[in-house]
Specification:
heterodimer; A: alpha+beta; Cytochrome-c3 Hydrogenase, chain B; three-stranded antiparallel β-sheet; about 10% strand; B: alpha/beta; Beta Polymerase, domain 2; five-stranded mixed β-sheet; 4 helices; 7 strands; about 20% helix
Chain lengths: ~375, ~170
Amino acid sequence: MVASPQATPEHEFETQDLLINVGPQHPSTHGVFRMVLTIDGEVVKDVVPYIGYLHRGAEKLCETMDFRQGIGFMDRTEYLAAHNAELSYVMAVEALAGLEVPERAQWIRTILCELNRLSSHFMFLGAFGIDVGVFGTPFIYAWREREAIIDLFEEISGDRMMYAYFRPGGLAWDVPLNFKERVREVLKSTRQGIRDFDELLTQNEIFRARTEGIGYISAEDAIDWGMSGPSIRASGVPLDVRRDEPYLKYAELDFDVIVGENGDVFDRYYCRMLEMHESVKIIEQCLERLQPGLIVPDKMPRMLRAAPGEVYIRTEAPRGEYGIYMVSKGGNRPYRLKVRSACLSNLQALRQMSVDQYIADAIIVLGSIDIVLSEVDR
Amino acid sequence: MTTQDLTGTIWAEVDRALAGVTVRAERGVLDVIVFIPRDEVVRGLRALKRDAGLSFDYLRCLTAVDNEAEGIDVVYHLYSTTKKHNLTVKTTLPNDDLTLDTATTVWRGANWLERETAEMFGVRFRGHPDPRTLLMPEDMDDTFPLRKSHPLAEIEVLQGEGMGYTEEDR
């Protein structure tokens, strides 16, 4: 008979770390993302993320495309917030080609970007509910609210996800005549939807027990990792491009930058929730100030050519800073295009947020960053 | 040494913070662009981060641009979360020696961005803590997709339409 080793307070069992592979095809990874967890019992000791499964070379493709053709590729880098992705791109072209965007187009862009933020955050709420273990109800509620917004986008641009509606200089065409009424109608249901979620998740004791105090990241670390969007604001860093470096019409609008305190998963969720109220507020102000007018400049060149130069345009997309670095050497296509993905930088901090958490919590931490893999991989 | 009028920008402060570093600046569309030789670039970036008046504590973006015969530019987009100002830093690497010190010692967030730049352009970052590929397959270390000499797709090579090929090669 072999003597079994005795565990004493001084001498613990020698345990072996276990490697667990999550993904790339796994419901909790929100797409094609793979992470290898090193676990000791139930506790995560190390996380190694693997990305690139959705890499389509959008940057290289855009180098061979006319400026207008590139818009479609930008939609596909960030399919849950395509308006916001297009915006950075067309703003970069406008900056290099020296185009002035008419007032009306700017107001409409602001409205659509904020609506897209709402639809993207609804998507987050639904998917995050599933990560936490609230199956069904929140997801269907989120889908219902998102559907109303997507329907509106379809009426405007003709497409439900890949809009290609923003063009260098303005918009592809004007919005339908009943635009204002339709947006107000959608906002009414959205406001109700946000309230529903507040009751369903925020005030749910089990949900709070699952999310509070896990996945902590400090403000200094979040800045060092280059995080952005609600993920960094939850750590108490008031970083919002809309407020810090206003573009479109944000300088004239009244809204608050939502900042969290604890930097945990709950704060990352709750920042998004509160941000949605701000988006509704912004859209209402925009609707009041939207006047008839031009949607592209009067003297729009038939051939769009950019001056040699380079520009780094940053805008606040739902997941954080979506940047476009565009280099032009003259001509009708970018010489180099770089998409600065908010999720890529946020994902870098995943390891720090997940280590020493339980496996089940690591899944929630991943969900709380709200990754879109097409944006990470481009 | 400045080549353009940079009054009203943060150039004066940057020049002071970068004392002892060879530096040249020009005005970009939005931000001031600073050129630093590659041997001094990480020292310069650290000085920009530590300087109390500038405190560039946030790395927005790190990437490279292939200028073909003129080498490869590595571009850093810096931001200060407290002072709310921006700066672009560029350094040029000659085609025969594409090595550069890593910026991960300044901002940890440079990690993945440098991995991507390395696999896409063949830039080697000295002292990088994790020099694996990021988006590309692990064994793809001999070809660099974002270089101008790299064709867009294999089909183009077969059809003789490779973007990266000269007229004679076709």
